[in-house]
Amino acid sequence: MTTVVPAARAGRRRPHGAPARTGPTLPRVLAAEWTKLTSVRSNVWLALGTVVAVAGTAYGLGMFVRPDDGRSGSWVVTSGFVLAQLGFLVLGTVVGTSEHTTGTARTTFAAVPRRLPVLGAQVLVTAAAALVTAVVALGASYVATADARAGGAPGLDLSVPGASRALLGFVVACVGVALLGLALGALLRRPADALVTGVVLVVVGDQLLAANPGRVTDTVRALLPSSGARLLQDDAALAALDAATRGPQLGTWGGGVVLAVWVLAVLGAAAYRLRWHDVG
Amino acid sequence: MIEVEALTKRYGSTTAVDGLTFTARPGTVTGFLGPNGAGKSTTMRVVVGLERPTSGTATVDGRRYADLPAPLHAVGVMLDARSVHPGRTAYKHLLAMAQTHGLGRARVREVLAQTGLESAAHRRAGTFSLGMGQRLGIAGALLGDPATLVLDEPVNGLDPDGVLWVRRLVRELAAEGRTVLLSSHLMHELALCADRVVIIGRGRLLADASVQEVVDRSERAGTVRVRTSEPELLARELLAAGAQVTPQDGGVLHVRGASVDGVGTAARRCGATVLELGSESGSLEEAYLQLTGGVVEYRTAGTPGGAR
Fold first, then answer.
1. Looking at this predicted complex, what is its ipTM?
2. Nearest by CB to B147, which of A10, A102, A109?
3. B38 in helix, strand or coil?
4. pLDDT tens across B18-77, in order?
5. Residues B161 and B254 occupy one common structural domain
6. Segment holding B198, helix H or strand E
7. Residue B219 Cα, gap to closest chain A Cα (Å)
8. How many CB atoms lie within 10 A of CB B210?
9. Which strand (E) or helix (H) includes residue B225?
10. Chain A contact set for B148 (CB, 8 A)
11. Which domain holds residue B43?
12. Where does a domain end: B195, B216, B237?
């Protein structure tokens, strides 16, 4: 082409005092994703609702625990995990799918066409939000079970082997489940698909298989992401689980490793789809 | 500058864009026209890197969109007014966009003011009317002060004030030396604000020319219309002079192959009284309909006894 045109005049015109015109970096995308997460009111309600559900479950179950039940003090405080994982799964799924369900993907990926920094930032932002929510939920559960402890439920004794690890494990497992939800959401892009898959993997599958104990079902159970719940058990409870199973012995950290592998594998698939396939 | 070369995009067995080549140049508003399903939106999405071409290339300032170092500063994109989370406010939506390029809150407030959305800035986008959604989309496109703008149906749903505003805006943006690629279904709107038009049908290029050139291609362009008291007399005279004449009702003749002056002179020669005389000009709409007549994907059955 030979025509001479005022090509980049407009592009180079800068407002006074404006910084250099540079593109997306991970910290910038991270700031943007944090703004996105916190600017949707339903996300904040979801986190609050999760805290209430966790503390409420712990309160309810705590009322029925007696000293001779064989339940530990950490179990009482973390017993809300049953419901908690649903909240965290939804939180992750919402972050992972909302780009695609609302059409925001067009705006987001036009601004960050390399795309993967967005997924990376979503992982960090979701992990941070889940971490804060889980810690708050744990604190709320502790407060909510104070009455139960006064009334006969076992006290929270951190000198019990594995008790402090179980409390930390609650937070880690919550973050893990949220990230699994995010990964499924980013991979499947539809909230219903991602949520159903997540619930099957995290809750239903384990329950169904537990109804038919055996070598095969116990092995499959051990390899489902629901194994992450082992992180919530103290040493005595882990020993009891390992004694009962006919599948592989996962030991102290095996359950957490299984959950982490699931998160990484599904995230990898989501990253592949995002990088190589059309969006919007 | 946007350069699309031999672009093809297939979805399974459906070919949405088929070997399309065109260029949108700086300082020009390029109108992008075509029937529904012609591949306009697909082309625009390939240009901004949301979809990858099956073959061919689409580049902005000589680079693939994904290779642009600062995309928001290079290209302002508005593909669909519904590209916003309904639960997020206009301000936060733009802020999240701005943050990806390290732009400050001041710039967000600037574009909100520029698009007349200041009073709605802290309302959730889900409560917006279609017109306000369009304004928010345009605000997002302007955010990075880009050298190129890609706007899909920007006047859709805007009130007359808004339509006028978009027309002035795109003219100003082009006058500043920017490249503007704009699709629209509103022909007269496009005729008013575009310099060039690219017309596609079924994913193929039908025309790529200035608005005037396309208008001149319409059948009616260049016809002289004359109303006279003696149509037969004048018609004979004109035919003898080598013109083509189509008689109409009410003593009106449509003449091709003769100028207005020629028809007037012929009337004087044969003594016919001229009651009305003028040249017909074509319209972009007519030219468009003639061009795309054969390739409309979703044709209406037509109203019984209806004209056209």
1. 0.88
2. A10
3. coil
4. 999 999 999 999 999 988 888 999 999 999 999 999 999 999 999 999 999 999 999 999
5. no
6. strand B196-201
7. 32
8. 13
9. strand B224-228
10. 11
11. 2-216
12. B216
